[in-house]
Amino acid sequence: AQSVTQLGSHVSVSEGALVLLRCNYSSSVPPYLFWYVQYPNQGLQLLLKYTSAATLVKGINGFEAEFKKSETSFHLTKPSAHMSDAAEYFCAVSARDDKIIFGKGTRLHILP
Amino acid sequence: DAGVIQSPRHEVTEMGQEVTLRCKPISGHNSLFWYRQTMMRGLELLIYFNNNVPIDDSGMPEDRFSAKMPNASFSTLKIQPSEPRDSAVYFCASSSPGYGNQPQHFGDGTRLSIL
Fold this sequence. Notes:
A: mainly beta, B: 11 strands, globular
């Protein structure tokens, strides 16, 4: 069975500081992994995805994530936070079928 | 390109009434998903269709909920009778053919309030 665990339901960083959102996955097969972002009153939008090509994946809005098989991790980072990054972020895993299993989400707060 | 379109965006109704939520997936996508999001339970998958056929409805909470996909461009989620605990944001998502490597594209959701 597939699952993801997001560490920290709320994360606060100062504007301009590094953003690090943690995600660990469990999968019985080589996984496909995703990060989504949800802004208020909107649906989830894809930030980036890992599908067994390069382990460092670059996404939109300056975000990137690194797949580390030995650590079963897929942490999301951005070098410098912007106020517009305040949102909820979801890590997700697919087991090579149509279903995607989502984590519980991490709400990112940006401090001025 | 048009994204996933959901209607209505907001619905307020009284307990016991029938509620119908509608979704138009992205053209060419063959998988469609219905989710429910609440503060307490987070994002829950209710049901998903592949090529208009329901594949997994294990997330449908009870018999009051039903979903249909009569064709590739339309799906409905119906609640009858509605209860206050059904209040949530309901999302529809669709994805193109693949082996799990295709992302899901979400609509903006229907915010449902049952009084």
